[in-house]
Amino acid sequence: xxxxxxxxxxxxxxxxxxxxxxxxxxxxxxxxxxxxxxxxxxxxxxxxxxxxxxxxxxxxxxxxxxxxxxxxxxxxxxxxxxxxxxxxxxxxxxxxxxxxxxxxxxxxxxxxxxxxxxxxxxxxxxxxxxxxxxxxxxxxxxxxxxxxxxxxxxxxxxxxxxxxxxxxxxxxxxxxxxxxxxxxxxxxxxxxxxxxxxxxxxxxxxxxxxxxxxxxxxxxxxxxxxxxxxxxxxxxxxxxxxxxxxxxxxxxxxxxxxxxxxxxxxxxxxxxxxxxxxxxxxxxxxxxxxxxxxxxxxxxxxxxxxxxxxxxxxxxxxxxxxxxxxxxxxxxxxxxxxxxxxxx
Length: 344
Prior knowledge:
Blueprint: E1 2-6, H1 11-16, H2 18-27, E2 32-38, H3 42-45, E3 53-57, H4 66-75, E4 82-85, H5 94-98, E5 103-107, E6 118-120, H6 130-135, H7 158-167, E7 176-180, H8 193-205, E8 209-212, H9 219-227, E9 237-239, H10 246-253, E10 258-262, H11 265-272, E11 277-280, E12 296-299, H12 319-322, H13 326-336
Parallel strand pairs: 1-2, 1-4, 2-3, 4-5, 5-6, 7-8, 7-10, 8-9, 10-11, 11-12
Helix pairs in contact: 7-10, 8-9, 8-13
Enzyme class: transferase
GO cellular component, one term: cytosol
Organism: Pseudomonas xionganensis
């Protein structure tokens, strides 16, 4: 069975999509899974053993470009038995339709009648988690999902990991605390830099080194964190935000003895690497997209105004994160990592 997955547009969602791929392999051990997704997602998909190949989709998020979608669809004609769509947009259904894939499966959304011929009606109460909504598309409508749920598990190649360590002149002579202070979604998901700096200070004094991860947009906050440390401690922090490729970030995160992260794509990457993880939540909720791993501590205040799922605080105070002090995060780290974690 040849299956084309139309993948999501966010890092965390792509990581969580591996639960669908795992379910498909459980049902059809010999199935071939290809994923049509933005080029940036290739490093994630290449680290998923269930995926045969990543197919680069050239159009940006929200771009229609009907001619290009038709051209891509026609190029895929006759190659697949089923398409499974993870986005709920009309646009995402066009390529499988133009490819004339016999079965085109997805949740009802944005007037996709006719484009999909295996259209499902989502019961949000039955499937509150995003991974449940992904996994359910691997089964017949109404089927019970198998328990326990699979967890994403990215595979790391030691050669590429060692190359990344060498490129950035990083050593594993001390345990690594990885900080992921960014969140592409918006300010309401970002724990303050001064709180990250305090966590970094305490772990450095305990003999750790600190690596900061993120996109180019997060480099400035990484520098803000470093600047809040006194000389002597500041040198123990490597700000890799915006310096690494996504592939290098994944490989280097696999070296971490522990990770502290906002609710972000890198949070899900750290969980899929099975790193001890403290996830800081403010405006969002772990009830929908929790990190999926065994060694996880979730820290949040649970104020009356949260979760609001807004990009910016409607009240302007960001108390759900600003009032969440470093101590609970440090205590969560101590519960997860009593002693330095050896890199596998």
